[in-house]
User: Fold these one by one.
Assistant:
Number 1:
Amino acid sequence: MAQQVESAGRLASGAGAVPLALGGMLGAGVFVAPAPAAAAAGPWLPFGLLIALAAVVCSASSTAYQSEAYRVPGAAYVCVRARMGVVPSRVGASAYLAGQVAGMAAIARVLGDFFLPSAAPQVAAAALLLVVLSATAGLRIRGAAAWIWLVLTVAVLGLVVVTCFAIEPVPPIPAGRPLSDSAVGITGAAAVLFFAFLGFERLTAPAAEQDRFAWTSMKRGIVISLVALVVVLSAVTAALVHQLGWSRLALSPMPVREVLTAAAAADLAPLVGVGAAVALLPVLLGALESFRGTALALVHDRDLPSLLGRTGSAGTPYVLDLVAGVAAAAVALLVEPIPAMAFAACCLLVHYAFANAGARLLLADGGTWPMRGACLGMGLSVVLAMSMPISAMLATLVVVVIGPLATGGVSRRWR
């Protein structure tokens, strides 16, 4: 794996803002999320994409203002703790950490399914171990390396899109069950597609000071990244629908791999599989970095054991990285990508509901539109979280109950 460790310091031109955000978002969600979104909403999926985009824009704005006001890792958690109290901050942080672990597991399983489908769980665990070792050694994909990996991801997706539209699709298979087109289905699709946007916080709420950009560069970077992701996700979804149809797409656990077989381009599958697997490695590394920022904030507040903050020779919290990697590997070995993705999205939506609520209080004396955006983001996050599958909601409920109790037990403080 290519390595480039960028020297500390902000890029004056802000050129690194786009790969920092977009490189974290172009991951498993783009490769897999269209399938469960199609199962939830069918042809109404584009409306779900717009709702997910609205929730992301509001959450990105809120976390950017929080990061500006609290210039520390885990700024959203710190803001919620300062503005809403200890228990809400622990609920949001617990959901965030669990969501990041499940998200890492989902990304790793998708990587394993692309690289070696017959041993996907084992490959996923090995990939997570590789990422933990890389992170512990201080590897940070930035600068030219980030652009190279971003171009690789776009090239893989572009090859799939071109192949799907270049070959005449086979006649559609009759639907085994009617596709959902209700309002609940649309919001369910939006909730799943929300996962595809995760990674924006790497720019709006960086875990390291050297990733902090000037406000104008940050805003420009997030706008470009979100627009680019919507375009890419729309193109990939349209290509999958063109070749598979809505019903077959809804039933596909790995639509990008299946569509190549459907398009009589099975010879391209190994190339696309290896390319996609390699492209997902930096996304895993970015998810671990995001996990690290909020977890270290909890360690600083003594809500997590101080042992987790112990650093190695590279200055990285190797114990924390190892715990996160082992937890994600355990989930990857036991859970398929789509259920893991649904649980991750539900947990992170709960986190952003609290983050937007904290931003609403932070911005109460500031600009009107940012405050209203935070209110909208809070409402959308709640609605989307409540639109997830029952299993994901129940698992999230367990997290938001046990998490605050566990952190409170560690610190022995309840307010």
Number 2:
Amino acid sequence: MKAEIVIGDEQGRPVLIDIEELLATRLLVQGNSGSGKSHLLRRLLEESAGMVQQIIIDPEGDFVSLADVFSHIVVDAASYSQGELEALAARVREHRASVVLALEGLEVEQQIKACAVFLNALFDAPREHWYPALVVVDEAQMFAPAAAGEMAEDTRRMTLSAMTNLMCRGRKRGLAGIVATQRLAKLAKNVAAEASNFLMGRTFLDIDMIRAADLLGMERRQAERIRDLERGRFVGLGPAISRRPVTVKIGSVRTGSKGSVSGLTPLPDGPKEDMAALLNDALTQEVAARTPAPPPRPAAPDVQALGQAIAARSEAPAAQRAAPVDATATVAAVMAEMTRDPDSPFQTASALYQSFLAHCRARGAHIPPLDMIAFRREFAMALAGLDRLPDHDRARLMAIGEGIADDLLGPFLVIARSALEGRDAPDDGELARAYGTSSPGRVRRLLDHFEREGLIVVREIFGGVRKITVPALEIAA
């Protein structure tokens, strides 16, 4: 018996979606604003809720109402740290919970980061938790942009990698990606191309219709009908839907978006003078209530007392004045203290730098001894234990790592130091701490990256022994 749902009808004939086939072949939904794209996703989720685990990435809060009728758990991403989101995603896979990751409480770039962290953690789950699940990503053009926008480059790489993993490699891990977008032209091609099923809604721009025609295998003049589709009608094609293009009218739903406005609401009926009074009554008082009170003015300084204090300080013996702080020794002491803290490697670079400055001020170094860039490299050196090496070995390793990005320098130096000292290659735990992650999958991808860049050569030996060669050192670790 097939696990099929009715998504809608074509001229009275039901149009079915085979959920088992969908898990293996993925789905792309496209439609301009107002085409009924969210309604389609809601119908798909409601009809399949009892068949398969569902994980919804919801940037606008459109799908939180599923929890009112079904067993979905709403996860407000604004209430969790990065580490908590990763742990939560691992539990979602372990316990097969259907969840809605609500992102509407975050700024756009924070939404993108939270989505990438959550998807990566789903992808990195242990093999014994690879249960089948539909992963629905609404507004996918935000999370897999075709071109760099205003977001930071590292954020764009992270989210594009997460979405590519979901669509390209997620099937073997039980993850079936369903991506929905308003603009095909804004969605990364390598993400859209991995879908084998399509539901194309109304779109007006030629560039989007051309891409839709290419994906559907239609002649471009035939794709003109996409422009004439009514709200709630989609052209469907794919092994889980139909072997030929069908025009389907999406069926009804039981839940609704909590933020949606349907239909027209009658305007208030009353004289214009009454409305003017409502708008202007006590307006000044309301503005005053919303305006915060100004801070109190500082008390005038006691000029005479201040002068006496300055004179007394200038007359103090030189031996009683504060000795100048040795910046090099201060940096070394602070770095040693921070690397002893087991939580330090897992903090963000900005949080680490603020902590570094606070420790320096506590030791009397009020002028920052290092800027942010220099601090990140010094911290990577300290985390790798380079302070315990002779000066010439330390200089040699830093010369090799000169062109490596700051966030990757720590784990590379750990590998290079092991090779230099002739020790066995560092294990995943040591590399994970230097990289600031708890995910074995991210460590494996890091080693793959180093190998592609020609920085290391990895040999996995039967029995679990790993050998790493650093070509620049010509020493096998």
